[in-house]
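Annex B. Sample input.
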Amino acid sequence: MADVVCVGAHPDDVEIGMGGTVAALAARGTDVLIVDLTDGEPTPHGTHERRMAEAAEAARLLGCRRVTLDLPNRYLFDSVEARTALAEVLRAERPSVIFAPYPEDAHPDHLAASRIAEAARFYAKLTKTEMTGEPHYAARVYRYMAVHLRLVREPTFLSDITATLPAKLAALDAYRSQFGENPANAEIIGLMEQTAHMWGGIGRVGAAEPFFALEPPVVRSVLELL
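Annex B, continued. Sample output.
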């Protein structure tokens, strides 16, 4: 069972928004599961088979597990069917923390994924339902930012990824069909490296990723805050 579930609309969304954090959690022995709601296809240089191979390699590089749901790319909506499909994964995996996409973006699939993730958290605790698995309610939801808009929002906290930035960039490089062979996206990996250093500068570390909490997080000691 997963300690943490990271939800993305497409393969590479989680890597863009929080790949360094996934690698850091995995390095500490945390069981992290990425749930891609769609396979991300069609794209100009990809196929279903190639995208799945790239996603599997990216997960290997980050040290996490991965599952892809059979929801439609480009036509992803916050529906009962989508909520139920993800809720059944949450009931099976029983994570304490869910990471969901930031709810402000130009990409409709990203907006839908954000709503689906938060609704599935609630659906997963329902009783008297035909869903598989036993009820479960994840304690926390945090949002990560992997958006098409050039947004800068004040985060709830920053995750230090100084040591795992190379793993994040390597995982992104695994998506050759999306970045290396697609001139329209050729600058993305470099931009992600720059962005990580920007957030790192704000946090007085080498590199960081921002997160946004639905509810105020609690620390056992203020000494946990750098």
